[in-house]
């Protein structure tokens, strides 16, 4: 046993030394050397850093900022960029690589290194002029007819993380994938090219590329404003937070150009700051994340409060709600169906799409209004490719606060245009003496209350998630809420997802693609009797709470 441990430690030490010899970053080499110097006490940490290379998942590369192959660092980014430009060349893609970045630690450095690798390989590189929202990068890929785009961001992950999203241009992405995130087989091809990169010292680095001017962001804002009608009501007071991210300047410019009053911005969270000092977790869905936003909304008597996540591709909406005792955040499903309903009533015809973990209400609305509908696997890279091509995508959303209200503008989730469209809807309702919650009640009266919730467990050992998925497959519940399970669908091998249905409820269980979490998405549908929406909501809430307990017991985490 002792010999085995020694062999393992010797192997780790040798792998670390090879990495040190190839790491182009002096700070990274110093960091890793410090871990080596603490052996054998640091063996678990060293093993984690070398547990395996980061791979392209739901959102590209994403991981902790640290030296070693299982982290985001200059060496990993250099290798990723070299593999990407090699793959683009092999696929015959022409045109520049356009690169954006957020305000996280390392983002600008990683973006600049990506540009140097691209130009070193003979491909023009264009850098966005400053930290900007992810949807601006997605827009730029189409606007500049780029071969591909890279966005350096970890979205709403903890401050210790960073990430690397890849978007394809029209040449390789096709009609539905132009300006969208990569999907198979492109991700596998890029990954193989990354693994084939030789010593990093032999990767040629070129000049820094072209730094674009502010006219790109101006063009994005101009087209974003065209997403909403030009003549609707604009009387609306909005409170806003970018959560220390990069959304504030672009969102306030868009609101101003559209004719709305400039939103009041939470002052402590207005400037980009990759340490996210006022929130424990920079995700608007997390408890406490929007407390300062609500306080601002109350103090300024706002009609509506909006939060973007740090890279501004998601949009959270918080509304006054007397029944909730103050203000409450609308669920992503609620905002999704409000936006879809608004577009439908504006006469926008085409394909409406969401994911298998989102509410069934959008499908019911489309069926009643004779509009095409589709469900996809989780992730906007699938949503924007929804349907069979017979109808153009006009709207897509996912329950995790992601909305695409104008696929021909940005073929990805876009928290800026979503916020504008929510404001257009809210201002129109206000002019009629109504609110967003009033419209939700009207939809519930027509289609029944579709109450959704989530049971999520964060783990430190990913094997716990695999074990829980194995348990639910081996001992699938036969009843939920006292009613028989009428359908138990396992999406393996295409996706690690189990879907359970009864005549009134649905449960979708899957590992998160971006965080070490197991998630169960819960939905109960309660019909509205005699127009009493409140009573139906209470029945649905009670049922979902019970369903949550049953699912937790079945997963046994």
From TrEMBL:
<dbReference type="Pfam" id="PF00408">
    <property type="entry name" value="PGM_PMM_IV"/>
</dbReference>
<feature type="domain" description="Alpha-D-phosphohexomutase alpha/beta/alpha">
    <location>
        <begin position="55"/>
        <end position="169"/>
    </location>
</feature>
<comment type="similarity">
    <text>Belongs to the phosphohexose mutase family.</text>
</comment>
<keyword id="KW-0479">Metal-binding</keyword>
<feature type="domain" description="Alpha-D-phosphohexomutase alpha/beta/alpha">
    <location>
        <begin position="332"/>
        <end position="445"/>
    </location>
</feature>
<feature type="domain" description="Alpha-D-phosphohexomutase alpha/beta/alpha">
    <location>
        <begin position="220"/>
        <end position="318"/>
    </location>
</feature>
<dbReference type="InterPro" id="IPR005846">
    <property type="entry name" value="A-D-PHexomutase_a/b/a-III"/>
</dbReference>
<dbReference type="GO" id="GO:0005975">
    <property type="term" value="P:carbohydrate metabolic process"/>
</dbReference>
<dbReference type="InterPro" id="IPR005843">
    <property type="entry name" value="A-D-PHexomutase_C"/>
</dbReference>
<dbReference type="Pfam" id="PF02879">
    <property type="entry name" value="PGM_PMM_II"/>
</dbReference>
<dbReference type="InterPro" id="IPR005845">
    <property type="entry name" value="A-D-PHexomutase_a/b/a-II"/>
</dbReference>
<dbReference type="GO" id="GO:0000287">
    <property type="term" value="F:magnesium ion binding"/>
</dbReference>
<dbReference type="Pfam" id="PF02880">
    <property type="entry name" value="PGM_PMM_III"/>
</dbReference>
<dbReference type="InterPro" id="IPR005844">
    <property type="entry name" value="A-D-PHexomutase_a/b/a-I"/>
</dbReference>
<keyword id="KW-0597">Phosphoprotein</keyword>
<dbReference type="GO" id="GO:0006166">
    <property type="term" value="P:purine ribonucleoside salvage"/>
</dbReference>
<dbReference type="InterPro" id="IPR016055">
    <property type="entry name" value="A-D-PHexomutase_a/b/a-I/II/III"/>
</dbReference>
<dbReference type="Pfam" id="PF02878">
    <property type="entry name" value="PGM_PMM_I"/>
</dbReference>
<dbReference type="InterPro" id="IPR036900">
    <property type="entry name" value="A-D-PHexomutase_C_sf"/>
</dbReference>
<dbReference type="InterPro" id="IPR005841">
    <property type="entry name" value="Alpha-D-phosphohexomutase_SF"/>
</dbReference>
<protein>
    <submittedName>
        <fullName>Phosphomannomutase</fullName>
    </submittedName>
</protein>
<dbReference type="InterPro" id="IPR016066">
    <property type="entry name" value="A-D-PHexomutase_CS"/>
</dbReference>
<keyword id="KW-0413">Isomerase</keyword>
<keyword id="KW-0460">Magnesium</keyword>
<dbReference type="GO" id="GO:0008973">
    <property type="term" value="F:phosphopentomutase activity"/>
</dbReference>
<feature type="domain" description="Alpha-D-phosphohexomutase C-terminal">
    <location>
        <begin position="457"/>
        <end position="527"/>
    </location>
</feature>
